[in-house]
Amino acid sequence: QVQLVESGGGLVQPGGSLRLSCAVSGSIFNIYDMGWYRQAPGKQRELVATITKDGSTNSADSVKGRFTISRDNAKNTVDLQMNSLKPEDTAVYYCNAALKIPGLYPRDYWGQGTQVTVSS
Predict the structure, then answer these.
(1) pLDDT tens digit string along 90-105?
(2) What is the DSSP track for 49-118?
(3) Which of 57, 58, 71, 109 has the most other CB atoms within 10 Å of its CB?
(4) What are phi and psi of 43, to 5 degrees?
(5) 19 near 79, Cβ under 8 Å?
């Protein structure tokens, strides 16, 4: 059984900061790419940022220069530091990990989501 547990969401004023964290637990053989996605009401889920096992990152143009993704391979965690938040960043944020557990092919796993609301 694999679990991805997110934390750190909440309500913040425009221009503020939040840090999201995601911890992966379970019988894991290997974790490949990790990332954060978000889904705003009435919109499709979209990529926010991803990070490979060796630390290479990719992020959406809308968050470049404001959000930073990082991971700790020893702890199986991935974080998203969000600065200069805007109302349009309001969404449910989902942690994602491509990983392999013993006996199964690698596939994507998702967290339950954490709400981020940017409002004055």
Answers:
(1) 999 999 999 999 888 8
(2) EEE-TT--EEE-GGGTTTEEEEEETTTTEEEEEE-S--GGG-EEEEEEEEEE-TTS--EEEE---EEEEE
(3) 71
(4) -120, 165
(5) yes
